[in-house]
Amino acid sequence: MRKFRDVPIRTKLMLIMGMTAGIALLLAISAMVVNEYTSTRHTVAEELSSLADVVAWNSAAALAFNDTNAARETLTALKTRPGIVSAFLYDKEGHVFSKYMAGKANPETTRGISDLRSQVSTLSEDKEVIQYDQGGHLHLLRPVVLDNEPIGVIHLVDDLRKLNDRLYSYYLIVALIVSLTLVVVILLSSRLQRVFSIPVQKLLQAMKSVSLSKDYSTRVKRSSNDEFGALADGFNQMLSEIHQRDEQLADQRQHLEQQVAERTAELFEKNQELKNAIAEAMDAKEVAESASRAKSEFLAVMSHEIRTPMNGVLGMTELLLDTELSDRQRRFAQTILHSGDSLLEIINEVLDFSKIEAGKLVLETHNFNMRDLVEETAGMLAERAHSKGLELTPVLPIDFPMELKGDSNRLRQILVNLLGNAIKFTDRGEVVVRVDVLTKTGNEVSLRFEVTDTGIGIAPEIQAGIFDAFSQAEGSTTRKYGGTGLGLAISRRLVDLMGGEMGVESKPGKGSTFWFTVSLTRQTGKKHHGLPLPDYLRGMRVLIVDDNATNREILYNQVTAWGMQSISAENGAQAFEMLRTAAMKGKTYDIVLLDWHMPGMDGIELARRLSVDPLIPEMRLVMLSSAGLDEEAEKAAVVGIHRYLNKPVRQSELYDCLVEIISASVEGQILQSNGVRTEGAKAVFEAYILLAEDNPVNQMVALEMLELMGCRVDVAENGREAVEAISRTAFDLVLMDCHMPEMNGFAAAAKIREHEQAGDNGQRVPIIALTADVQKGVQDQCRAAGMDDYLGKPFNQDQLQAVLLRWLDRHGEFDRAKAMEHSAGLDKHKETEPLLEQHALDKIRALQRPDKPNILGKIIRLYLENSSGLITSVRKSVKQGDGVALCDAAHSLKSSSANLGAIQLAAVCKELEDMGRERRTDGTRVLMDRIESEYQSARAALVGELENISNA
Ligand code: ADP
Asked: pTM to 2 decimals?
C-alpha cells in the first residue's frame, strides 16, 4: 500500500478535505442519533405510563369488586394498541388477577419479571416502576388506586416496536443526508484542490523542463500573489542566477582554454629548448668522455714514457754503483739514484691521484698480517726518523686480530704517507703509530689507525683544507719541507674507497694526530696466531729501561704476554739503583732490555757500570737503538751487551732474540738484527732467458742485471722475433715488454702459448710481462694473453731477482745452494760442512749450572719432541697453499734449529719462511725435499749428541 506521503498532492488535498468533512458529519450525526434515541425512548415510556393510568383507572372497580370479567375486558381492550405484548393485573397480595396476551404467549415477555412482582406489594400509591428486561421489552408497573388506597398493580409489557420503527426511519434519513453531504464534499474538494495543486504542478513542470533542456532562461508565470507567487519568484530568481553563473563560467572557460593554448605553446617552445640543451649536453658529455678517455690514455702513455727513461736512469745508476768508482763519483751516482727515486715517488703520486680522480683505482683484496704490515712500514721509515733523533713506535694490542683480508699495499701507502709527514714535520720527540679495534662483528673488524707526532702541528683554520689536493698548510711549508701536497688527498680518497673516514686533531707547536678508520675482513678459518710460547720464557724476570713511556708500555705488554715478569725504569741511574737494591736482597734479573739513547746515564754507560759492579750478577743484556750503526754494535759488544736490536723492534724479532739468548750462553757476540740488510747477497741463476724489449736503454739495463745474476740472455727486438726465438730455442723464462713495434707483448705471448699447445712436449715457459703502464686492467690483460707474472718498470735488481726466484724456482732451474755459496763468496762444498755447529752447542753447554739436569740434553729432547710436529705443519701448509701457516711453522723450526746449530736446516727454513710471508707457497716443492732431508740428518745428529750425553 502506498504510503500517504507518497500520494500526489491532489489526492492528499482531496483526502484531507473529505476526511475532515466526513468526521465533522459523523460527529454531528452521532450526537443527533443519540439524542433522538433517548428522546424517543422517553416518549414511548411516557405514552406507556399514560396508558397504564387509563388501564389502572378502568380496572380499579373490577378489582375492588373482584370482577374478573370486567378486568379481562379492560385488559383485552389493549389489543388495539400495537406494541403491547402482554398485560397483567395483580391484586393487593401480588397474585395475578387477570392477564392479557397478544398472540401466543412469549416467554421473553415474562422472563425477568419475577423480581418485579415482588415489588408489586410494596408499590405505594403514586409510584410506578419502568424497567427493560433482557429481551428488550419495556415493563411498566403501576398501582391501581381506589380512594387513595392501592388495591392492586397493573403491569404492561411493550415490545418497543413503535420505538424501533421511528428510529429506523430516522436513521434512513440520516444516512441519506450523510451520503449527499459526502458527495457534495468530494465534488467541492476536487474543485478546491486545484487552487493549490495547479501552481505546484506548473512549478514542477518548469523544473523538469529546465533540468531536461538545461535552458536556464526559462521562467515560470506568476499566477497569484500568495506563497505560490513567491515560490515562482524564488524559482525564477534562482534560474536567473544560475543562468548568470553559467555565462560567467562559459566566459572563464573560454579564457582558460585560451590560456592553456598559450601555455601549451610556451611549453612546446621550452621543450624544444630543453631538447636542444640535452642534445648539447650529450654532445658535451661525449666531448668530456672522449677528453677523459684521452686523459686516461695520455696518462698511460705518459706513465710509460716517463717510466721508461726512469728505468734507464735508475737501472744504469744501480749498475754504475756496482762498478769501481771514486768516492766523488759514487756520491754523484748515489745522488742520481736518490733523486730518481724521489722523482719516481712524485710521478707515482701524481698518477695515483689522476687514477683516483678518474675513478680508475680499484682496490685489491688479499690476505695479509696486520702486525707485519705495521711493523714493516715502521721499520721502513725508522731510519728516516732516527736520523732526526725521533723515536718511531708502532703500538698494536697484543691480542689483535692479525690475519686480515684487504688491500695491504694501499694501507701501507697511507701509513707511509702519514708516518712520512709526521717525521717530516717533527724535529723533536716521537712518532707513534697506533692501531686499535673499534668493533668486531662476525668476520668484520673495524680498525682505527692513529699516527701521532710531537711536531709543528697545524693551525685549526687550515686543518680542513690540508686534505684537498695540492694544498699545504702555508706557502712557506713547500719551501722548507718540500712535498707535492697530494699525499693526504690520496690517503683520504683511499680511505674513502675502503669505506672509512680520515681526520686530524692538532695543536700548533704541540703536534698532530692523523687518524683513519677502515673495515676489513678476517681470514676465514684463521685463528689469531700468536707466537708459540716456549716454556723457558715463562717466569723469566725482565727489567725494561727506556726514557720513552710509549716504548716502555709496549715492551712491558709484549714480555708479560709471553709469561715473563717485568718492571720498568725511566733512565739509566734509576735502573742501576733498582738492580743494586734487588741484588742486595738476593733477587736477580734474567734479562735487561736497554734503550741506548737516554738523557743522563745512557744505555751503554749503564751496561758498562753493570759489568764492573761486583754486587750485580751477570745478566743477559739486550740493547735497543734507533741508530742502527755498525760502530754502535761494536761498542756494545765491548761492554758485554748480548744482543743489539734496531728500533722499532718487531714483536717477532724481540721474541726470537729472547728465545735465543735464553737458550744460549753468549759471550759478547753481537748478531745483527733481521732488520739490517746484508749487502751483496745476490742470487745466481743458471738460467737461459729470452729478453723481448725494443728500447735499447731498457734492454741494456735488464741485460746487465740478468748477467750479473749469472743468467744467459738472448734479446728479441719485438714480439715477432720473440716468437721465432722461442720456436727455435728452449728458454727457461721470457721477459716480455708489452709495448713493442711490429708485434706487441700480448700478441707475442698469446702466439707462444698457441704454439706450446700445438706442440706435444708439454713444455710451458714462464712469461713475465714488463710494462711501465699503470693503467687499470693491464695485469688482467697480461694474464689473458697467457703471461704468468708482471714486473712494473722501472724495476730494480731486487725486484727482478724476486721474480726470477719465484719463476725459476718453480721451474726447477734455480740452484739455491749455489746461489748461497756465491753470495757468501764461499767455494766450500756443502758436504764438508758439519751437520751441527759445535759453537752453538757449546753456548748451551755453558749455561749448565752445577747440580742441575743436563741442559743441552733437556733442550735437544724438547727440540726432538716439537720439531716433528713443526715439520708436519710445514708440509701441511705447503700442501694447502697456506702462506701464513707456512711462515709460522718455518719460523719456529728455523729459530729452534739454529739454536741447536742445525744451520743448514735453519737456512732452508728461512727460505720457506720468506716464501710464506710473501704468500708464495707454490714452487716450494724443491725446498720441501731439501728440508725433509736436512731435518732427517739434523735429527740423527742430535740423537747422536743425546746418546753422547747419556753415555757421559
Ligand atoms: P706534502 O707532500 O706537502 O706533505 P700532504 O698532502 O701529505 O702533502 O700534506 C699536506 C700538508 O699538510 C703539508 O704540506 C703540511 O703543511 C700539512 N701536514 C701534513 N702532515 C702534517 C703533520 N704531521 N704535521 C704538520 N703538518 C702536516
From this structure: 0.45
